[in-house]
């Protein structure tokens, strides 16, 4: 038996620390005073081993690695796949990939790539991945193949890129996006060796996701009322890809009556915007809460923007259903990578929303260039509406927590003036 290489030792140490990191954050959530047993289902999905192999075993479906929520989840479901969004909130895995990646880079993607470096589930030839799908949302994802190569991650599965038109309001862009959805359908059919998608299967999947959206909307309403903390809201949203959609929805429905009985959280109410936040890196939710701020609304793609909305349809043909999906995922998306994105600002300052909070906390991960740039144009527009604004730039380390907390406490004081 040969000696274990230094690389293997480092990987083994990182894997143990990764398990400890997720378990520690889950335990911290369980020890909160607002914990109740029904929440343990969602925490159990997030703690310990977060490998794709574990997810595949749980859902009993082949996985498609998905780099962004822009791709219609209903289409994967209708063809028998489980879409698994590649994301990362681990500090441990960030350190694993950082030595081979650009120094100024999105820490979420660094963390995700580090987790993929840890994953050894496909080395026996029985990989849980059946395909990779990468919508071209940000520049980092566009360069995904180069990033995988730098990290030594071998992707032997079929891969497909969804070219995202970055102008939403042009008819030509909408037609182009529909063509991309058709191309995605053709690609996925090729992966499973089928020639046709049954319209009734797609309709059934769209109805499944409508039920999930309805339950999630009820959870959002409870957040508006201050009945659930941002930390728990994020944990529930982040757990979405770790279980089958039907099972996740049923467990979400079980906690709604209990949350309705909760007393509203006290403190100045704020809107959280900017870069996504992923478990186990819940530093920002904990700091906001420690500063006495109550997040009643957000536009994070890891949180409230988990669904772009329900896809409504009256044309039950395959074309009619795919068109409904294409429109909903393109028009309903509020990602800052779109060039014509006034809806994102309007979503914050809409009269129905504006009265819910006193200020906006804009969270930017270092290296997340679209959000960083957006903050510069967003701040004066919000201040013109009488809303207080603070921008917090951070990464996946804990060293800046004290400084961030001081700034948030000062921001809280300004909301009283």
Short structural summary:
By secondary structure, the protein is α/β, with parallel strands linked by helices. It has helices at residues 6-30, 40-46, 52-59, 73-78, 91-97, 107-118, 139-142, 144-150, 171-192, 199-224, 230-238, 245-260, 283-290, 318-331, 342-349, 351-354, 369-384, 401-415; strands at 63-66, 82-85, 129-135, 159-162, 269-274, 294-298, 359-365, 388-394. Helix 4 (73-78) links the parallel strand 1 and strand 2.
Q: What does this protein structure show overall?
A:
The chain is of the alpha/beta class and 417 residues long. It has one domain (6-415). The chain has 18 helices and 8 strands. The chain has a 4-stranded parallel sheet. Strands 6-5-7-8 form a 4-stranded parallel sheet, with helices on both faces. The longest helix is centred in the middle third of the chain and has 26 residues, at 199-224. 44% of the residues are buried. The mean pLDDT is 89.
Overview features:
4-stranded parallel β-sheet, 18 helices
Largest sheet: 4 strands, parallel
Question: Which residues sit in consecutive blocks of at least 5 with pLDDT less than 50?
Answer: none
**N-to-C series of helices and strands:** HHHEHEHHEHHEHHHHEHEHHHEHEH
- Overall pLDDT, averaged? 89
Computed CA radius of gyration, to the nearest angstrom: 21 Å
Strand tally, please? 8
**Class by helix and strand content?**
alpha/beta
Count of DSSP-assigned helices: 18
Share of helical residues: 40-55%
Q: In angstroms, what separates the terminal alpha carbons?
A: 70 Å
- Provide the domain count: 1
| Gross morphology | globular
**Beta-strand percent range:** 5-15%
Q: Order of strands across the widest beta sheet? A: 2-1-3-4
